[in-house]
Amino acid sequence: MGGKQSRSFSNKELNEVNVSQRRRSALRDDQPSLSSAAERIRRHTMVHFGYSTLSLAMRGLDETPAELWELRELQKLNLSMNCLCSLPPALGTLDNLVILNLWGNNLSSLPPEIGLLKKLRVLFACRNRLSEVPEELGSCTCLEVLSLANNQITGLPGSLAAMHSLTKLNLSHNRIVHIPTCVYSMKGLVFLHLACNRLETIADQIQDLVNLKILIVEGNSIHTLPKTLCFLESLELLNVDFNDLQNVPVEMYLLNRLGRLACHPLDKGLHIIHNPLLKPIQEVLQGGLSALYNYLKPT
Q1: Which residues are CB-neighbours of 77 under 8 A, at least 6 positions away?
Q2: DSSP 246
Q3: Could you tell me the CA-to-CA distances from 207 to 1, 2, 94, 135, 236 in Å, in that order?
Q4: Cα–Cα distances in Å, from 237 out to 135, 183, 266, 271, 284?
Q5: Beta strands in the chain (DSSP E)
Q6: What are residue 100's DSSP bridge partners?
Q7: pLDDT in tens, the chain (299 residues)
Q8: pTM for the predicted model, two decimal places
Q9: Per residue in 149-182, is it b (16+ CB within 10 Å) or e — as a string?
């Protein structure tokens, strides 16, 4: 008494409930198919050097399988040499990724959600069609290796200045006119590759990269080197081949770790061929690097 009375369902209402239950059951039946598809992909994963690894390289993929993004345990993912034009926002769900290889696709952009990959240490995105990278990439502060070579990039967002763990940066074969300001804040850089861009100068801030051992700027239009470059005491390889240099800074003798004039591209030392060097320097260089240093040293 005084409470609500329960009412009985009509046959029509019962039929509607049964139909609704059958629909929900059908949806539940469909759900395992997605998981089973994910399981089929999971069977291709392997543990490599202690990392959960999946390679889908050279599969002719023009889009990534939706089930891939369920494999949140993945630490290494190789999607190289496919036909991918874009990546979905779901990339951000793989938050355990340490290495991501996107080399050799047709990517015109990277999704902002890449910034959610806080554990990412290595990113290969070379040989794509990138004209820029998202600001959010700067949130990947654990990155140690970043390759954006062979794209159409003209600059980098300032947010990448936060990448203090970065040791190797490859920006070669792009359309960069000025070294992005954020690069000078990457104090951990040991390797910086800027060959075959459109550089004309190197800023004085290059001296801030105190750990730099390898600097490659061949194939640009650089007409002068800043004297601050000569304060990089750790520099072991400096490649300025195929530029517009007519002279070198008198302080260059301070770069004593260069050791010699180098010929082979991988040799440590100073690479300075194919520049319109003026006569005194050009002639002195015929005696090797030590001759150049003796010429430059103040008496």
Answers
A1: 53, 54, 56, 94, 97, 99, 100, 101
A2: S
A3: 88, 86, 37, 25, 15
A4: 31, 18, 9, 8, 20
A5: 46-48, 51-55, 76-78, 99-101, 122-124, 145-147, 168-170, 191-193, 214-216, 237-239, 269-271
A6: 77, 123
A7: 344 443 433 444 434 434 444 444 444 444 444 468 778 888 889 998 899 999 999 999 999 999 999 999 999 999 999 999 999 999 999 999 999 999 999 999 999 999 999 999 999 999 999 999 999 999 999 999 999 999 999 999 999 999 999 999 999 999 999 999 999 999 999 999 999 999 999 999 999 999 999 999 999 999 999 999 999 999 999 999 999 999 999 999 999 999 999 988 889 999 999 999 999 999 999 999 999 999 999 97
A8: 0.87
A9: bbbebebbeebbbbbeebbbbbbbbbebeebbeb
Residue 46 in tokens: 């392997």
